[in-house]
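Hi Y.,

Following your request, here is the sequence exactly as I used it, all 108 residues.
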Amino acid sequence: MYKELFVFTTTHEGNDLTYCPHCGVYINLKKEVKMSVKAKFQCNSIVDIGYGITATFNAVYGTEGENSDYSRMTPCGNIQMTIDKQTKASEEFQRGKCYYLTFEEAPV
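Below is the corresponding structure, written out as tokens. Let me know if you'd prefer a different format.
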């Protein structure tokens, strides 16, 4: 679909590669590329709901260091999860701590 942007082609190790002048790299357009987005979230609350907990997270915001990078790339967002108390996962999160979250495409 973006082939009109690519101008050079070559073959390397049996793969047809197309050069992207915008990125400055050769790309295998036939190879499936998996999506991945990494964000940094902070746990703002943990509520006991009897059979489990509800943990709420918000995207990290900052003006310095790593937090500045995450603020620019994933500036806002929130996640709320209910986790069964009978699982180890219900003990893994602590209010005030930060966690990395990676989104990867999954089969339906």
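Residues 65-73 form the longest helix (9 residues).

Thanks again,
Q.
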